[in-house]
Amino acid sequence: MTERVDSRFKTRLTATELKAVETQVELEVDQLLGTPPTLESLKAVGYEEEKWLINMLRFIRGAGRASKLVITQILETAAAPIIAILFGLLEFQRVQHGAQALGQSADSAQLVALAVVSANIIHPIYALGTLRGQTSYAVSSPTLRGYLSAFGRRLWGKPTLREVDWQYNPTLHMAAQIITWTTILLAVYDLLEPLITAVVTGHTTKPAVVLVIEFTMGLGLSLAGVLFVQSAAHNLGMVMLSEDPKRLTDLLTEKMNEYDQEKIAIYERVYAANMEAKIADKERQKADKTASEGIEANTFPLSSIGEHKTTFPVNGNNNGR
Fold it and tell me: pLDDT tens across 226-260, in order?
């Protein structure tokens, strides 16, 4: 005999009782929900795609959505290359001047600037190749404590072994950090070298507040330039998802899901009601059995009445006569 055990209830249903539950669920589903939704039933309640007014409104809305998507796509497609080109040229000049200030020749400085700016553009796109086929990935927020802990593990920690796939590139992240900070420092050196030289040699008469503002602006421009180049390159490497218009078959799928969820809720309600009824019936049978046993324990049989003889005293005294 097949039985269903449910941890929510302290009893179980037999195959016959489970069949009765399923029958009751089917009856209530037919009464409350009716037949499952179909394309014909959806069209019967107002989803008529042949009506000219609905078609006109849908055409207008579709044209509006299409124009917005086209404009957005054009702007997003053109924005990343424009930002990458403009800030790439800006960083190229800064790195070139910084390399020349460090003693490099003009040709060497141009080559250094070209290599550094190209690395900042190529690295984000290159890094996205390791995420091909994935919809998301975990990102850790670095902290000073984390850096110190990682540095301590590298000095005194035990060697660790981990399994990686063929896309694992241990030098990519390290190279990206080095090239990023190298570009920033070269840009900062190009922008702030005259200011720092004037402050150190004492050949400036500007107030301290102005010097701090100039230093902050130069540092901000250097950081923003490098980060903008890398963010634009990352945007170029992303694949844009297309937005498909919702069709009647999609609405049918949504309605079918709602129908299935309501059917499951009805089944759970009917099943719980039957389980509670069975538990109550068992409790009632147990109480009746306990009560009947108590009555039998307090009742004397009629045949035992004659076995007991009672002697009544005469004149208040019983002498055994």
Answer: 887 878 777 777 754 334 456 677 778 888 888 98
| 115-171 pLDDT tens trace | 888 888 887 777 776 666 566 767 777 788 888 888 888 888 888 887 777 667 777
Hey, is 164 helix, strand or coil?
A: coil
Q: What percent of the chain is helix, strand and coil (3-state, nearest 5)?
A: 70, 0, 25
* Cα–Cα distance measured from residue 1 to residue 249, given in angstroms and rounded to the nearest whole number: 43
Distance CA 30, CA 45 (A): 19
Task: Supply 157's token pair.
Answer: 């920690």
How far apart CA 230 and CA 123 sit, in angstroms, is 8
Q: Measured between alpha carbons, how far is residue 216 from residues 193, 202, 222, 231 in Å? A: 13, 20, 10, 22
Domain ranges of the chain: 52-130+169-237
What's at 48, amino acid-wise? E
One-letter identity of residue 314: V
pTM of the complete model beyond 0.85? no
Rounded to 5 degrees, φ, ψ at 157 are -75, 160
DSSP of 292-314, one letter per residue? HHHHHHT---GGGSTT------B
Token pair of 54 as six digits: 């609905």
Q: What is the DSSP letter of 131?
A: G
Contact of 226 with 187, CB cutoff 8 Å: yes
